[in-house]
Structures are given as C-alpha cells and as structure tokens.
Write a structure and sequence with these properties.
Layout lengths: L18 H9 L1 H18 L7 E5 L7 H8 L4 E6 L2 H11 L7 E5 L2 H5 L5 E7 L8 H9 L2 E12 L6 H12 L20 H10 L3 E14 L2 H11 L1 H9 L2 H15 L9 E13 L2
Parallel strand pairs: 1-2, 1-4, 2-3, 4-5
Antiparallel strand pairs: 5-7, 6-7
Helix pairs in contact: 1-4, 1-9, 6-8, 7-11, 9-10, 9-11, 10-11
C-alpha cells in the first residue's frame, strides 16, 4: 500500500523493505480488499481479462488483483503474479491456500520474470507499483516483452496529493512533528508522482504502448474510528512505522494523537471514518 502504495524498485532481485509490514497487510486484507474492489474490477475489465486469458500481475504484493484475475480466467487460463518482496509473497501464498486456484503462480522477481516467459501473456496488471520503480518506462518496456501483440495493460496509480487523504495525512503529521523531511513540491518522486493524468498517460507512451488512456476511480477506506485508522497505518505503512519508532515516547504519542485527530475530518454518517481516495488507471495496448 514507505506507505501502503506499491511494492519495490525494478532493478533489485529482492526487496525486503516491505517484509516488516507484510503481516500487517495480511491482517488488514479485508479492509483493503473492500476499498479496492471497484478498482480491481475496473483493472480486470480495462485489461480485457476473461476466461482463458493469460495474465501477468507485476508487483502483486499480497495477492490482489491476481486472485480476482485467476477467478476470472478459470482453469483454461493462467496468472503469473510477480513481486520482489519475499514477505509480501509469503503472505500471498498463505492467502492462496484458502482458494482453489492452481493456475495462479506466484514468483519472486520483477518485470524480467515476466519477459523471460516470452510474449505469452494476453493481459498485464500493476496496481500501485509503478510509482516506486526507479525507472518506470524501462520496467514497463520490459513488461511489454512478455505480452502478445495486442495485449492490454492496466496500471493503477494514486491521484494527486490533495486527492489521497490516507497517504497525505500521515505524511503531513510526520512533518509537523519533525519525523519526516519536507517533500519536493513538484511530486517528482513518491506515491503521487503520476497523479496528474498527463503524467500517468506518459508512463505507457514512453514504454512503447499505444492506444493509451486514463480513467479515474474512487478507493474508499472505511474504519470504525480514528484509533482504528492509526492502528491500520502502524501495521501497513512503513513510513508511519519508521516515524513512530524513531520518535521519543512523548513525540510518538503526540504524532499518533495528531493522526487520529486529523482523520476526524473524514467522519462518516455512521460515526466511523471514510477516507475517499482517488486512483487512476492508465491503460494501453502492446503494439
């Protein structure tokens, strides 16, 4: 989703920065899956995933949308789900045990692991991963080598800073308490770097895809209250976990209280919290 927004750099064979929060991702899977359900359906539809499709999921994390893709393609298809974090893959494989999907394969690696299979995949997905690649066009160009001609690709990226409160609020709170350096205003890096539709579109154009387009989707994260929201962030966000661990006890207490208080601006009618976040799907075709 560093924060819960993606996975790992493209040029590292194994990246365990996500392992400290992988179990947290597993614990909060019902909350995260509910929030991304509409987005995941849109990813599958946009990539034209259907019965018998052969799908590659780059930076699969703890298993979605690979699980949804596997259910859709059925036994006549195949899903190759790739991630470079051993901790995330461990959780994904544990989750897979509860599902009868033998045509779903989890593999450690990055785009190279997909490309080395040859141009065999009819669709490709990447949910909240490309923002964290060191060289996104190069990674996506490598991914393209593993796709058949005419294959569809759909990548989800977060919107702009203003559109994604569940990521913006902890960053701002950490900065207020001196636990995070101010970030560059141009969003040249980090989770919001492709929030502008033009920047998102350039991702696939620069990687050699055609028929590129961008759509906008809602990702509503719901919690029983601000305390649960803070606990969620401590479990799944490397940024929040690192900030809390670095802080002196009193600063940590103030930081977490600040997080909970700012989240109250998103109180819902049922006395819980609903943080409405915007994601974009950039999609294209392999020529």
């Amino acid at each position: 989703m560093n924060d819960p927004t993606g996975r790992s750099p493209d040029d590292e064979p194994e990246d365990d920065r996500w392992s400290p929060v992988a179990e947290g991702w597993g614990r909060w899977a019902p909350t995260l899956d509910a929030a991304t359900a509409e987005l995941d359906r849109a990813l599958l539809d946009t990539a034209c995933v259907g019965r018998g499709s052969h799908v590659a999921d780059l930076a699969c994390g703890t298993g979605e949308p690979a699980f949804g893709a596997a259910r859709r393609v059925g036994p006549g298809g195949h899903v190759l789900a790739v991630d470079s974090s051993s901790g995330m893959l461990r959780v994904a494989r544990i989750r897979a045990r509860a599902q009868d999907l033998p045509w779903l394969e989890f593999v450690a690696g990055s785009a190279d692991a997909i490309a080395e299979r040859g141009p065999t995949h009819t669709a490709a997905l990447c949910r909240f991963g490309v923002m964290h690649f060191d060289d996104p066009p190069r990674v996506l160009a490598t991914l393209r080598q593993g796709l058949t001609r005419g294959a569809r690709v759909a990548c989800a990226v977060w919107g702009t800073r203003a559109e994604v409160p569940f990521l913006r609020l902890p960053r701002e709170a950490a900065q207020r308490h001196g636990l995070l350096d101010p970030e560059p205003p141009d969003e040249a890096s980090g989770p919001f770097r492709f929030g502008d539709p033009a920047a998102a579109s350039a991702l696939l154009t620069d990687a050699g895809f055609d028929e590129v387009g961008v759509s906008t989707h809602s990702v509503p994260l719901r919690f029983h209250g601000p305390t649960e929201f803070a606990r969620f962030l401590l479990d799944v966000s490397q940024l929040v976990r690192d900030a809390a661990q670095r802080a002196a006890p009193q600063t940590r207490e103030r930081f977490l209280a600040d997080l909970a208080e700012t989240a109250l601006d998103h109180a819902s009618a049922d006395h819980g919290l609903c943080l409405s976040n915007i994601a974009r799907i950039v999609h294209g075709r392999a020529p």
